[in-house]
Amino acid sequence: MSPTDPWILRTEHTSYAVALDPSGRWAELSAWGPHGIETGPSPMQWSRRTHFLTPADAAPAEHLPQGLRAFTGADLIAHHPGGPRGSWYAFTGADQDGDQALRLHFDDELLGLRTTLHYQVVAGTDVIQRWTELTCTGDRELRLERFDSAAVNVPVDRARLTYLAGQWSQEFQLTQLELARGRFEMTSSQGVPGHAYAPWLAVQDATAPAHGPTATYGIALAWPGNWRISADAEPGGAVRVRAGRLPDQGAVRLAPGASLTTPVLACAFSPDGLDGLARVWHRYERVLAGERLLRPRKVLYNSWEATGFDVRATDQLELARTAAELGVELFVVDDGWFPGRHDDTGGLGDWYPDPEKFPEGFDHFIGKVRALGLDFGLWVEPEAVSPDSQLYAEHPDWVYRLDGRPATLVRNQLLLDLGRAEVQEFVLATLDRLLSSHDISYLKWDMNRPPTERGRPGLEPDRDVEYQDLDAAHVAGYLRVLDRLRSAHPQVTVEGCAGGGGRIEHATLARTDVLWPSDNTAPMDRLRIQYGYLHAHAAHTMSSWVTDAPGLFDPRPRSLAFRFVTAISGVLGIGADIRAWTERQREEAAGWIARYKQVRDVVHHGEVHLLNSPADPTCGLQFHTRDRDRVVVTAWSTGLLDGAPLVPGRPARLRLRDLDPAAGYLDQDSGTRYSGAHLMHAGLPYAWTAERDAELTVLVRT
To answer: Which of 417, 446, 469, 525 is catalytic?
Structure first.
């Protein structure tokens, strides 16, 4: 191939073309979109004339260091200790594996740095994974202040950015802004992705509709530690997005011969707007799940909201018996099952069943739960430790702290330094002991406090390389423990949680079965959380409980049906004190649980369409099998009622999508027959009332 010919990567439906700039110094995006986009002049083509800028500053570059890209934002800032900041690398070769993988090599001989850009197509999806490998090739140590995974260029003059923002109990709020010029940035320095922003971003042309046939570009960073994503609307009509780790100590040291590999940045494209992009991400996450996707997501009961820390075998068994009568398949004991855990001030770290709470023995208790036909699960928070625990008394050096400084308590607890090998081994031994000694098939891994004093006693910042990258060490330890846990106990279902949705990204998702999006289970609040979540993540990963919680942000009361339909749209769980439910409520709950079992294969394995939003009077989700023979619709009344039937008014309608217009579809409950054309043009009717505010519809192709 000639130096100007692009390298082309092909996903299931898209092409991604990369070429060298005319000077041969860096790689540029040539085209990204549906198959065939690479044929013709590049959408990223530009005049290459600059004023008060360098050509590299205006280029749609895939990755550039400070030095070459001096003004508009570099992806790599590297230097020798005490030396000038900057690198000037040049292209030195490429390796390509057909149209599925690509590696581009760039060297800076003076600095002693090799940069390799990696591209990998994920088979069966429209996702390309990108990451960067940095190797110190000289005989002097390097300091890396910025080392983004990749830069992504989108050819739009005025960008619409869609991102997921919020706070604890209000995560995953779908948020949009227009960026004509300037910079937008999201970060987390909390040692986890955090509740304020998800490491996910979508870019569209602001003149086009957000949903429907609109070219939509998305990125998601697989990193459960500190991170940042920035988007720059640059001169010449393009948006350039950069994403990567955020160094905890400001820089990372790279010794001679050592290499650093950045987190994976997943890049996705859909021609069908945010709705289409969501389906791309869902398929990708089903690939990440692998064989674990085939494991049915069982109906769960969690005892936390019913009993809190007051865990007693008798009360738990009463809840388990009631749950089994409803059709629940899995019973989980949450916080409070271990010694010293009567509130949030003690006990963490001493992970043994409390004999006072289980006087007949823990195994005897589990046996009684299982005799009811229920699987058994347990909550743990293995990264945390209480100051009054035996673990802390024996290993006070295992927590993050700064020598000579007081330790900050968050939620009355400290955080273990999971970057330490001995801490990893303790956590692994603890989890292995619990899972091997007791008949536990479900584990909820929680994490309720970020690292504050990020230091390791005995290390000196200027002398010890380890000190410079404690965030990466913690992430590596966390992922290693999860990997070992999955390998040793493949039958155990693992739920990921961090004070709700504080640690949700693809590295965690690839190693867990379900994730807990938020501690907020109030009906209207939860619907908004799940609506945002489903733009980035698949329904089979979304744990959702039915509770009696009142609204925190939207206090409008909603029915038990509303709560069940919301939870059925993900992985159904119950967290209410079901002992206090009336017989009528229990009968209704049993009916909903039975219906969930009938449709969960479609919800978890099917294609999803987001119908309207919680801001509209009627909101819904459409799930259908790939052959479109079965369609499941969950719908909610989210606005004001129209007064019908006392005054004139038509039922609300949800227009379905992507059906066969000539086919017939039978509503299994009402017996009504529709054509696909009717469902897509006129829509499913919903005559909402104060009592009837949600509905689950199952349509079968005839």
So the answer is: 446
Q: Which residue in this structure is represented by tokens 């390791």?
A: 456
The mean pLDDT of 332-345, rounded to a whole number, is 96
Strand partners, 32: 16
Phi then psi dihedrals of residue 308, to 5 deg: 60, -140
The per-residue DSSP string of 30-42 comes to EEEEETTTTSSS-
Residue with tokens 């260029």: 153
| Distance (Å, whole) CA 32 – CA 7 | 12
Question: Quick one: pLDDT at residue 271?
Answer: 97
Confidence at 1, pLDDT banded by 50, 70, 90: very low
Chain segment 603-615, per-residue pLDDT in tens = 999 999 999 999 9
Q: Can you tell me the distance from the alpha carbon of 416 to that of 448, in angstroms, rounded to the nearest whole number?
A: 12
- 251, 243 Cβ separation under 8 angstroms: no
DSSP string for 104-121: EEEEETTTTEEEEEEEEE
| Residue 627 known to be catalytic | no
| pLDDT digits 0-9 by tens, 533-559 | 999 999 999 999 999 999 999 999 999
Which among 335, 469, 519, 693 is annotated as catalytic? Answer: 519
The SS3 assignment for 292 reads helix
Half-sphere exposure of 397 toward its Cβ, with a 13 Å CA cutoff?
6
- CA–CA separation, 672 and 149 (whole Å): 52
Q: What is the pLDDT of residues 221-242, one digit of tens each?
A: 999 999 999 999 976 678 999 9
**What is the CA angle 184-188-193, rounded to 5?**
115
Q: Catalytic: 629?
A: no
- Is the per-residue pLDDT at 646 higher than 90? no
Q: Return d(Cα 418, Cα 383) in angstroms, integer.
A: 7
8 Å CB contact between 637 and 652: yes
- 457: tokens are 């006693």
More confident site: 617 or 465 = 617
- Rounded to 10 degrees, the C-alpha dihedral 162/528/538/183 comes to 20
For strands 159-165 and 113-121, give the pairing: unpaired
Cβ atoms 562, 568 nearer than 8 A: no
Q: 97-102 contacts: CB < 8 A, separation 24 or more?
A: 99/8, 99/9, 99/10, 100/9, 100/10, 101/9, 102/7, 102/9, 102/18
Question: Rounded distance, CA 78 to CA 612, Å?
Answer: 47
Place of tokens 């200027």: 462
Which of 16-20, 51-55, 157-161 reaches the highest mean pLDDT? 16-20
Calpha distance 474→477 (Å, rounded): 5
Tell which residue, 208, 256, 246, has the closest CA to residue 224. Answer: 246
- Is the predicted pLDDT of residue 363 greater than 90, yes or no? yes
**Coil, helix or strand at residue 488:** helix
Q: What is the mean pLDDT of the chain?
A: 95
Per the DSSP assignment, residues forming a β-bridge with 132 are 117
Q: What is the pLDDT of residues 654-673, one digit of tens each?
A: 999 999 999 999 999 999 99
Overall residue count recorded for the chain in this entry: 702
Three-class DSSP labels, 429-483: HHHHHHHHHCCCCEEEECCCCCCCCCCCCCCCCCCCHHHHHHHHHHHHHHHHHHH
Residues of the chain above pLDDT 70, percent: 97
